[in-house]
Write a structure and sequence with these properties.
The protein has 311 residues and is an alpha/beta fold. The chain has a single domain, classed as Alpha-Beta Complex (Inosine-uridine Nucleoside N-ribohydrolase, Chain A), CATH 3.90.245.10. It contains twelve helices and twelve strands. Strand 4, helix 5 and strand 5 form a beta-alpha-beta unit. The chain starts with a strand and ends with a helix. Bound molecules: beta-D-ribofuranose (BDR) and calcium ion (CA).
Length: 311
């Protein structure tokens, strides 16, 4: 089993990423850490715990940074609503909140792990950068960072940048320059990880407790994506990063050099990808361009079905 820590900002697609990670027999989730992004730190922390309560998991959830390293927080209520998980009633969290802060949790979990651990960040990279600044020795204990963020030819927050990288570009720069193996699961691939309205309907017909909530979440999210981007369904951005750890063959990738724009007038948070090798710099990331959509959908459907059976 691959040991993983999921660092997220739930967020509708983060919620599905949590479900996929927790249900997959290939993964051992050491814990969930949350970060401010789609909503405030308080809300994303509560949301992660509510999703775990729904699926009957007692994994620890550690709350992370309430704002980016250097900038003011930007959230995404236009996509994820005022709670961050609008569109559904979730159970109140039953757990006892984890006392550790996310960066301490990450550092301690890594240092005490017997084998290297995968980090799966699906929100702004603030916690991951914070942990690397606090304890650079954790680098040796990280097998790979498989992150949802960025894009080569596509963006969503601005004409130049994807949301997660845009919110905390300085954190992203620290992570991309860390020398740790990185898979960048960006919009070029995740925009193709589309659950159509028919898929959402199929999910709602499964008849279980978890699938019913997942379908309601995705229906809300798909309506918002339609309004803002004219998308026909729900982009499962974050679950694709989890799927890429479960089975790396789900992605089509190329090793490339990626810089993060922190200073541009119009390009804050752009992932500047050297497609043609013009910088002469060594590749620092495996960049995703596409996916095996039917394999990905099977992973998500099977995970949710197994959570229905368990709950
Ligand atoms: C990313 O931004 C968030 O809104 C989603 O949860 C995902 O992590 C997509 O750009
Ligand atoms: Ca997210």
């Amino acid at each position: 089993m691959k040991k993983v820590i999921l660092d997220c900002d739930p967020g509708h697609d983060d919620a599905i990423a949590i479900m996929l990670a927790c249900a997959s027999p290939e993964l051992e989730v050491l814990g969930i850490t949350t970060v401010a992004g789609n909503q405030t730190g308080k809300k994303t922390f509560a949301n992660a715990r509510q999703v775990l309560t729904l699926i009957g998991s007692d994994l620890p959830v550690a709350r992370g940074f309430d704002k980016p390293l250097l900038r003011e927080l930007i959230t995404a209520p236009e996509i994820h609503g005022e709670t961050g998980l609008d569109g559904v009633e979730l159970p109140a969290p039953l757990d006892k909140p984890c006392a550790a802060r996310a960066v301490n949790f990450i550092v301690e979990a890594l240092l005490s792990a017997e084998e290297p651990v995968y980090l799966i960040p699906t929100g702004p990279l603030t916690n991951i950068a914070g942990a690397l600044l606090l304890a650079p020795e954790i680098k040796e204990k990280i097998k790979k960072i498989v992150l949802m963020g960025g894009g080569v030819l596509v963006s969503n927050k601005t004409p130049a940048a994807e949301f997660n990288i845009y919110v905390d570009p300085e954190a992203a720069k620290i992570v991309f320059e860390s020398g740790i193996p990185i898979t960048m699961v960006g919009l070029d691939a995740t925009n193709k990880a589309l659950f159509s309205f028919e898929d959402i309907e199929t999910l709602s017909q499964l008849g279980g407790k978890v699938s019913a909530v997942a379908a309601q979440l995705l229906a809300f999210y798909a309506r918002r994506l339609k309004r803002f981007f004219d998308v026909k369904g729900a982009h499962l951005h974050d679950p694709l990063a989890v799927a890429a750890v479960i089975d790396p063959a789900v992605l089509d990738t190329k090793f490339l050099q990626v810089d993060i724009e922190t200073k541009g007038e119009f390009t804050r948070g752009a992932t500047v990808v050297d497609l043609y090798g013009v910088t002469g710099k060594e590749a620092n990331a495996e960049v995703a361009f596409g996916l095996d959509l039917s394999k990905f959908k099977s992973l998500v459907f099977n995970a949710i079905k197994s959570l229905d059976e368990r709950s």
